[in-house]
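W.,

You were right to be curious about this one. When I first looked at the sequence I had no strong expectations either way, so I just let the prediction run and decided to look at it fresh. Below is the sequence, 676 residues in total, followed by the output.
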Amino acid sequence: MEKEENILGTEKIGKLILKFAIPSIISMLVNSLYNIVDQIFIGRGVGYLGNGATNVVFPLVILSLAFSLMIGDGTSAYLSLKLGEKKEKDAAKGVANGILISIIFSLIFAISSFIFLPQLLNIFGCTDALREYALNYGYIIVLGLPFAICGITLNGIIRADGSPKYSMTSMVSGAILNIILDPIFIFIFHMGVQGAAIATILSQLLTFVLNILYVRKFKTIKLTKEIFKLDFKVIFKLLSLGISSFITEMSFVVVMSVQNNLFGKYGAATEYGSEVPITVFGIVMKISQILNSIIIGLSVGSQPIIGYNYGAQAFDRVKKTLKMVLITSVTVSTFAFVLFQTIPDKLIMIFGSGEGGDALPSNYIDFACIAFRTYLVLCICNGIQIPAGIFFQAIGKSTKSAVLSLSRQIIFLVPAFIVLGAMFGLMGLLYAGPFADGLAFLISSGLLIIEVKNLNKNHNTSQALIDDTSTDNKLDRKFVITISREYGSGGRYVGRLIADKLGIKLYDKDLIIKLAERTGLAEEYIENNEQKRNALDILNNGFYAGLNNDDELFLNESELIKEIASNESCVIIGRCADFILKDQKNVLKVFITSSMEDKIKRATEIYGFDKNKAEKEINRINKLRANHYKYYTGNNWTDSSNYDLCINSDLYGVEKTADIICDLVLQKTNKKPIKI
């Protein structure tokens, strides 16, 4: 890890981007092409109605993908965290539960989808003319969902196990087989949409089998029959870690369902009818997704570079990386814009010209040209909006990342479909694209400009205590006191008093210094991020192939705390130390609280808070600490069962509180009382 961090901070930016971006781009493109291949062969062998049918079944496929990514990405993140904590058994237990829940869910989902497929297709915008094709295609696709869901789940786990090439090989193998089988079943066996569906599930089966074969040769863990038992606490953690992937995919399900229904509704009132707009727009969306896949892959590849250098406060490298990504992304989106505006008829003809299936309506190509040129007229904006959202994800700005990630699809596009469709009919739906792209561009570029301008500014002052080393140790044997504390309770000062009275080391600022030396991240960055977790930070897990800065901080800090606790007596302030050292002997775990009145008084007098805003700020900081504790320990921060002693500093004052804790420590470590 240290070697990789040095590379992230020293290697040429261009070389790093190539190293990390190319695998991401390939992975994204394979996923996009997987979805588009069926439509190419169906369009040529069955006709445009077959393509329209796949468009109304597609939301169901994305829905299954949302759940499988939530399980797979969550399990892979759990695996990485537990391996970082050197807890191989817990890591294996997490993987076992991920596999079990994937199997259980995939079967339930497939059975439910099979039973309620007609009703689901209605929700996804199916018309009478498309229904037979959609049912024939959908029933077979549903049968393959267990293989698809389990295969995708295993893909993420294999990647986290340190075998990204194997993961990519299994996925690419399935995609290649799909390309081979589609024309065989459609053109040779004349099986129509059913043949395309069979080709798809056989391809998914291949990926599933290859991934299953890997299970017996995991590098980092060992799976045994005994650990394949459902643990709902672990399952909840897995799902929470993967929720960002779920939200991202579910936004696509919502958009596709709305668009299919509205294009069918407003198309019926025009010369094009319902089926032409549904079919054409589905193809437009999938072709544009190829563009987005390249930009997303490039941006994802830049994440570890931006994240590390931001944490190390090497802001020149952050700016240079961002600049290169933006220039490349805008170049790609500009090239796509030229294609969409100049040869839309050629693009739509890739998906069939009417010779091998249903004859194309005379206005089919006309509408396709209008759709490409209108809906994607501002696709150049994607070259800014997508990298901006992933940039904020990389630097840990979860709120901004969430806004940018969801703004185009949910906040702008869906309402625009509804409002502009009601105002202008079918053309209004096409106007919704540039409307959403333009607004998303303005917000993302504005936030990006502000963030880049503020990169060199440090808005936070240090509140960590200077750690004085004492040589007057009054303890007969090694002993550690962990102090968890509400903000403003005086717990930090209590820790200082305990260290002074017992003649042992206090670890607060020194932990930050040592952690900076170990990780290469700046002290200021560590102090401002190590014990704070926003509720929206869960959305920062979606695109990372590995661990983000916060996870790396926690793992390195945990290792450092264990090393310190094994070598000397000391007082450790916060940082989940009670949890990290829970299995060690000779540790006293303390939680210090106080009344809000006392916390406000201390915050205003010592920290200089505005009295009118103090309570709100105290609650905010304590919420961040509680979120951090819950995320990394799975426990509630204020739960008394986590600690050996919970004490209200109001009752005795900080001096007496420190004395009480010292007396308890001395009773545990000395044969006779020592006057302090």
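Here's what jumped out at me. Confidence is low (pLDDT under 50) at residues 1-5. And, maybe more interesting for your project: The two ends are 45 Å apart (CA to CA).

Coffee later to discuss?

I.
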